[in-house]
Write a structure and sequence with these properties.
It contains 17 helices and 13 strands. The chain has a four-stranded mixed beta sheet with strand order 1-4-5-13, sandwiched between helices. It has a four-stranded antiparallel beta sheet with strand order 6-9-11-7, with helices on both faces. A three-stranded antiparallel beta sheet has the order 10-8-12. Helices cover 47% and strands 16% of the residues. With 429 residues, the chain is α/β, with parallel strands linked by helices. 54% of the residues are buried. It binds uracil (URA). The site of uracil has 9 residues, from α10.
Length: 429
Amino acid sequence: MSRVAELIERKRDGGELTASEIDELILADVPDYQLAAFCMAVFFRGLSSEETFALTDAMVRSGETLDLGAALGRRVVDKHSTGGVGDKISLALGPVVAACGVPFGKMSGRGLGHTGGTLDKLEAIPGFRVELTTDAFVAQVREIGLAIVGQTADLVPADKKLYALRDVTATVDQVSLIAASIMSKKIAAGANAIVLDVKVGDGAFMKTLEDAQVLANTMIALGERAGRKVVCEITDMDQPLGRAVGNALEVREVLQTLRGEGPPDVAELVLGAAAHLLALSDLGLDRDEGRRRAEGAIADGSAYAAYERWIRAQGGDPDEAALPKASFVREVFAPRGGYVRRLAALPIGNAALDLGAGRREKDDPIDHAVGIVCVKKRGDEVGGGEALAEIHARDETSADALAEAVVAAYEIVDAPPPAHPLVLDVIGA
Ligand code: URA
């Protein structure tokens, strides 16, 4: 039996691998079929905390790393979400944090499946370039205080390979593999302090609070071992975040948020994450003062101005009127009056995907204009026949095809439902 097969067999049978054995799997040129088998063995057997750290560390060493903090002589902050529906927080958070004088440098990913990706949302902005060289990325964070770019090919190449294999072998949703994937990229990209938003609910990888807490604790431990300060917020993904789902629609909602007119859940997550990031920065503030400054940056327009500077620096047109618009908008209506008890995130994410807002396969093209606006959300009162949502589509046929699915995502009951917390837990603060 080959050496790699022996290592897979050990994991398959519940044994433990050493750090140098994990290096052999991740850093050598192991064929895809063996790496896929290894992922499946990990899926069933899990990894110990030592193995998870060794995997993360090997993944970091698979490519280039960046020391952004040292390059700028400042403590640099970053934020990452485990992914959800309507999650546009980073696009508003970056300008808020930069307006408060803290450098924000982030490498983001694209959406896959029903979850959206920050890069796709940014590419809804005409002219915006997500690909910058590492030098240009560092220079922009130095000069503008803010850059969000695609991950360069040289950063954690092992994750690109592993993630692509996991995606087609039903091995994405395993805590150690998710934690190593996310934290290897955060560590390699060089921020000193990271706020992680672990989503929980039907639209997220983690379906229960307990699983989300395990993932959060795993990522905090990985960050701390790499000398990074990490705070995890566990937040609700049982309904879409904000009202807009779909790239240009979400950018519009970001602009509303930066003007202080955004949906309350988006505003709250932006201010909460900004408070954590400012408290972790080199400004020497506590969280309350961080939140006050973040609120001030929205109120005095400096966060909006930071957004405009940032978008222009990456070649984009920050004018809201420049964003693409779908040619057809269809409303869907409540079949009865009452209160929205449930607005399921997954079917709304899938409907947006079917409209063309996301991609089922890695290289599918995206229509940046299309998506869903959830006019009513959980807890809202609705009259029979009142609009629940808008479908922004390429044409009438594609909007009609999804109308039923969008209405079915809503559950309407007679009495107001109990309040559902937006932030379920904060770990590592
Ligand atoms: N996001 C990542 O970057 N990796 C995962 O494995 C899951 C979500």
